[in-house]
């Protein structure tokens, strides 16, 4: 079904007015696709002829843009080179690789030694207005090549919902000090978990985070809330609210398995107020993944995990209206569609 034909419906469960965070759970039509646990998605498609991966979670779907200048060749891989997507940037050279440096839009990206290349991960910001990325390759302090990669101006879907604020009697209930402390402590722990490790745990192994595939709310959907209240039988409009979905929601009934998408180290395994039971994994190379609203965590902070390892079970903890997996991806601090990572053919050494 084409995205434009999808109908989105938003359900509500506001719990507080102290901090105005509202979470919508968006449902869309379509059957889930079954996958064996810890599936490498490309293989599942080839062997089982599984159809219906609208977000392109298949490594063979990565596009390649290859450019050469003098001794340096850039191989840029991405699902679609769109804003909100992750990119794999590889450099090959007929000369040495070890002294190559790469800057994208003026910002240095740390290069990791791979098989016959050096590589870095990058992501286009989902709300970027940039039409192209400028890549500068240097050897030592000498510029050796400049490349330009277009940024596809992908439009993300919008879901509009009307909300009568009077339906929510608990909006006037004050939050307890205990809850306020819990939120603050969680905020600090999460912030700490975003400080990325220097190393690289990434291998060519990238695994699907669930054992079935159904997107219940897509990445970066814009949620527009038209708020109103009834005064003497007449609708009175209130200030609207807008939020953007910072991850992708995948179907996952309570107890369903959740898998690490790549090798890494667990930097957070906690029960937080809004996120519920959450695991964050640092994969190195500036890549961090997060798995929210779980019913049970099967790893703890400091654990090394491998791609496809079960890290927990799906649930409805935190601010949600029903069980599902909210997965997010951060690439050098930029939010990107987590499924866009899974198509990248990483040529890691290990
Ligand atoms: Zn979500």
From TrEMBL:
Boundaries of every M23ase beta-sheet core domain copy: 244-338
Pfam families: Peptidase_M23
Parts forming coiled coils: none
Molecular function terms, GO-annotated: metalloendopeptidase activity
Database matches in InterPro entries: Cell_wall_metabolism_enzyme, Dup_hybrid_motif, M23ase_b-sheet_dom
Domain of life: Bacteria
Name assigned to this protein: Peptidase M23
Species of provenance: Turneriella parva (strain ATCC BAA-1111 / DSM 21527 / NCTC 11395 / H) (Leptospira parva)
């Amino acid at each position: 079904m084409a995205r434009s034909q999808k109908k989105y419906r938003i359900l509500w469960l506001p719990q507080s007015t102290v901090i105005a965070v509202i979470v919508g759970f968006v449902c869309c039509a379509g059957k889930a696709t079954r996958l064996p646990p810890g599936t490498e998605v490309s293989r599942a498609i080839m062997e089982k002829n599984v159809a219906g991966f609208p977000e392109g979670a298949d490594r063979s779907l990565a596009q390649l843009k290859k450019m050469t200048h003098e001794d340096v060749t850039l191989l840029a891989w991405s699902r679609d080179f769109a804003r909100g997507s992750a990119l794999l940037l590889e450099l090959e050279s007929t000369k040495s690789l070890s002294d190559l440096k790469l800057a994208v839009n003026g910002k240095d990206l740390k290069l990791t030694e791979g098989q016959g290349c050096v590589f870095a991960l990058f992501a286009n910001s989902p709300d970027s207005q940039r039409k192209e990325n400028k890549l500068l390759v240097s050897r030592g302090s000498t510029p050796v090549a400049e490349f330009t990669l277009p940024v596809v101006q992908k439009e993300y879907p919008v879901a509009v919902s009307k909300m009568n604020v009077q339906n929510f009697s608990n909006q006037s209930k004050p939050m307890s000090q205990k809850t306020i402390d819990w939120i603050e402590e969680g905020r600090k722990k999460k912030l700490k978990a975003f400080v990325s490790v220097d190393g690289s745990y990434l291998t060519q192994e990238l695994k699907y985070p669930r054992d079935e595939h159904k997107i219940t709310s897509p990445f970066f959907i814009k949620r527009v809330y038209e708020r109103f209240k009834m005064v003497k039988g007449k609708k009175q409009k209130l200030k609207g609210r807008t939020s953007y979905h910072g991850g992708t929601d995948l179907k996952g009934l309570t107890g369903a398995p959740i898998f690490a998408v790549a090798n890494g180290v667990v930097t957070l395994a906690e029960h937080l107020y809004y996120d519920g039971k959450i695991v964050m994994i640092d994969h190195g190379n500036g890549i961090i993944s997060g798995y929210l609203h779980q019913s049970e965590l099967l790893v703890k902070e400091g654990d090394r995990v491998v791609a496809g390892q079960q890290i927990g079970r799906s649930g409805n903890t935190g601010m949600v209206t029903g069980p599902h997996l909210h997965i997010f991806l951060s690439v050098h601090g930029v939010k990107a569609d987590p499924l866009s990572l899974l198509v990248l053919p990483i040529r890691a050494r290990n």
